[in-house]
Amino acid sequence: MTMTLISPAFADGELIPEKHTRLGENLMPALKWTGAPGGVKSFALIVEDPDAPRGVFRHCGVFNIPSDWSELPQSSDTAPGGGPSFCRNDFGNSRYDGPEPPKGHGPHRYRFCLAALEVPSLAVPAVAGIETMWNMAQKHILSVATLTGTYEQA
Asked: Rounded to two decimals, what is the model's pTM?
């Protein structure tokens, strides 16, 4: 079975609703996944914009998502209590920051990439950015699922 990633907020290839952008409420969309492979011990997630003017821009990085989870609820980055860890994004925040492409730059793609890992946790330094976390995760990936949304600031 192939691992799949979906969001009730938008379908793959479709527009991300404004409430999930920095121009709206900046709420992290809910995400759900199925088909995780056997042997998964944790998950990691990144959200990135490959269409940013200066190269890939990373909006969110989540790691140490427990293996028995199959979803992240909306606004899971601001939920009280324990849970997965968030790394510093390219805005400098340790949370989700949604799309905010330059005005008139055309539509941007936002890739949500979930990795099933063979390790129970990643020892990512508190000040580490998403790229550092993702490079650590790459060494332990069993399977990957992606979901792509679009957004354009007219």
From this structure: 0.95
